[in-house]
UniProtKB/TrEMBL annotation:
Belongs to the AMN1 family. The gene is Amn1. SMART domains: LRR_CC (SM00367). One of its GO terms (cellular component) is SCF ubiquitin ligase complex. InterPro entries: FBXL15_LRR, Leu-rich_rpt_Cys-con_subtyp, LRR_dom_sf. Interacts with TASOR. Gene3D superfamilies: Ribonuclease Inhibitor. It comes from the Eukaryota. Residues 36-224 form the F-box/LRR-repeat protein 15-like leucin rich repeat domain. This is Protein AMN1 homolog.
Length: 249
């Protein structure tokens, strides 16, 4: 059984490598949920047709991402860290990921604090089908990342850059770019450099926006809470001054 394999990975390494893709997918899911995938064993379970990797509970680094070179069909990767910062993932690994996986749709890097703009730039240039990007608490992320996403990723509909160093210029570049008509969800909480200009830019440029969080931004005064929006969707706004959701129709 698969559970037996996970308990004796080194013993059955050769057998695991020869498993068919559908069985490997089940093994990947099981091992991921138990935090068992590592830099050392990820190559044994990967296969060229893998489409999703949820590695948020796994202790991996750039070395694991460098082994994705044959995973051209990968569409989703989750490297979020739920509690502590993840230190092993840097822009080097993200660049390798971007070059290997051109059909990536969803990339989540919450609390991967060593990722910088160069990694996001590689994603934006090479993975133009991106729909969901999570850069929350990636403290090295600045305006260049948002500009690159806005210029290259027209299918982007959900983006999280909360607790980063972005400014109004970066947000404006994002929401006035190719993805402006598709953006539905933006998280920019606890961004100390953002002002009402960023809030108004989102509400003005994104007609489909319906989840918009910006609480904890000390320079946002709150005067944009009732900014006009032409959206045909309900809009959920969370502002630092209200600390609760306001629903507009």
């Amino acid at each position: 059984c698969l559970q037996c394999l996970t308990k004796n990975l080194s013993r059955y390494a050769a057998d695991i490598k020869s498993l068919p893709p559908n069985i490997k997918d089940k093994l990947i899911k099981l091992m991921s949920s138990q935090g068992q995938i590592t830099d050392a064993n990820i190559s044994e379970v990967l296969h060229p047709a893998v489409e999703s990797l949820d590695l948020r509970d796994c202790d991996i680094s750039d070395n694991a991402l460098l082994q994705l070179y044959n995973c051209k069909q990968l569409k989703k990767i989750n490297l979020n860290s739920c509690k502590e910062n993840r230190l092993g993932i840097t822009s080097e690994g993200v660049i390798a990921l971007a070059l290997s996986c051109p059909y990536l749709r969803e990339a989540s890097f919450k609390r991967c604090c060593d990722i910088t703009d160069s990694g996001v730039l590689a994603l934006a240039l090479n993975c133009q089908f991106l729909q969901i990007v999570n850069l929350g608490s990636c403290s090295g992320i600045m305006d260049a990342s948002l500009q690159a996403l806005g210029e290259n990723c027209k299918f982007l509909h959900s983006v999280d850059f909360s607790s980063t160093q972005v400014t109004d210029d970066g947000v404006t570049a994002l929401v006035s770019g190719k993805c402006s008509k598709n953006l539905k969800e933006i998280h920019m909480e606890r961004c100390v450099n953002l002002t009402d200009v960023a809030v108004e830019a989102v509400l003005t440029c994104c007609p489909k926006i319906h989840i918009f969080l910006f609480h904890g931004c000390p320079l946002v005064t709150g005067r944009s809470n009732h900014a006009e929006t032409k959206s045909n969707y309900f809009l959920i706004i969370s502002s630092f001054s209200l600390e609760k959701h306001t629903i507009l129709y």
